[in-house]
Amino acid sequence: MNTLVAVAIAPFGVGDELSEHVAEVVRIIRESGLPNKTYSMFTEIEGEWDEVMGVVKDATMALAEKGIRTEVILKADVRPGFSNMMERKVEVVDELLGAERAGTL
Q: Phi and psi (nearest 5°) for 21?
């Protein structure tokens, strides 16, 4: 079943600069082969439920298995019968805003 998640996986107790650890998490997500986009606070991943959750687990455990306390914030949109929602959700909003500007709404 198609699942789109927004996930933030962050280490705690490793100092003020977290970029090195975050980069490791993002590398694992990107290497998964699933569609993904990274933003300043979250990374989105889309695919089948088990695949997406497997990537979240792998990325989380990469830090936890080093003894690093790890926080995971996850929001999931499970939408049967749909795909490419990472792109399509934004396109629909942009279309509506374009229609609004054109005065057709």
A: -70, -40
**Tokens 């439920």 identify what position?**
49
38-84 residue pLDDT tens:
999 999 999 999 999 999 999 999 999 999 999 999 999 999 999 99
Model confidence at 102, pLDDT cuts 50, 70, 90, reads confident
Count CB-CB contacts under 10 A for residue 52: 25
**DSSP annotation string for 38-102:** E-SS-EEEEEEHHHHHHHHHHHHHHHHTTT-EEEEEEEEEE-TT---HHHHHHHHHHHHHHHHHH
Q: What is the value of pTM for the model shown?
A: 0.89
